[in-house]
Amino acid sequence: MTLPMEELLDTAERIRSMEIRGAALIGRAAAGALKDFALSIEAASLEEFNGEVRRAAEVLLNTRPTAVSLSNAVRIVMRYRGDDLEAARSSLAKNADSFVERSLKAVERIGEIGSRRVLDGDVILTHCNSSVALSIIKTAFDSGKDIRVIATESRPRYQGHLTIKALDGWGIETELIVDSAVRTVINEVDHVIVGADVITANGSLVNKIGTAAIALAASEARTSFVVAAETYKFSPETIMGELVPIEMRSPEEVYPEISKLQHVRVRNPAFDVTPHRYIDVICTEIGAIPPEMSYLVIKEMLGGELERQRL
Fold this sequence. Notes:
Helix content: 40-55%
CATH class of the largest domain: Alpha Beta
Distance between the termini: 42 Å
Structural class: alpha/beta
CATH topology of the largest domain: Rossmann fold
InterPro entries: IF-2B-related, IF_2B-like_C, Initiation_fac_2B_a/b/d, M1Pi_N, NagB/RpiA_transferase-like, R15Pi
Protein name: Ribose 1,5-bisphosphate isomerase
CATH superfamily of the largest domain: Translation initiation factor eif-2b, domain 2
Keywords: Carbohydrate metabolism, Isomerase
Number of helices: 11
Pfam family, one: IF-2B
Strand content: 5-15%
Largest sheet: 7 strands, mixed
Shape: globular
Strand order of the largest sheet: 3-2-1-4-7-9-10
Order of helices and strands: HHHHHEHEHEHEEEHEEEEHH
């Protein structure tokens, strides 16, 4: 019989190894894992329960340090209340269910809002594998617009392969390119649409490595650069002056035989930062906003978290 912590550690490892990937999926997986853990553990007291779920939360938080969807999901779930053990258990489970429902509804709503910017005949370029960016593309296509998509491979983990499989299944005409070919095709593109791992207080975007170079090419070509992001991907920490940590992943992801080389090292950052000046609009579930409004989103939507950090 699998113990609750073993199940949670299994989810944590699948997040760390990127078996579970994509900011929204990571957040929902973490919320679900915390809920299952809380409902399964045997605790003799409320104090013991609190200690165990805090330990479980820390395990999840340490898996992907950049993804604010993960940290915000965990924090939201951990805002449970209860004067006794069973009330606390029920409150945590309710928080997890509420987060997952909110996340799914946000993806659908962003698809509706973002698709209004897409016109019949448009060519869209997307990078990595973002469920919310794909929601915009699919909603536009389902509304009858004749669109074409160019997708990057998104090396070194090739998340773009997941993207083209989804697009193909929906019947959307798609072309796959290597990441370095973006500058070659950018003049054909009407919109770049990407997801987000983090939106900072000044409206800058932390996303899959290569996003910043695409944004620069789009700016040069005067091509619209659209970010699709749920509000829980906005970072309260950045208001308090904290920098977003950029996750460095294994060299073997880039070059599996690196250990055989004596004088070569591999640098493998998972994310880069796109300055807000290269972003035309951020499509959220509360509307399409300019990046300069990010501070207000954090203050209004995540204000409770901000106040806790000030105390």
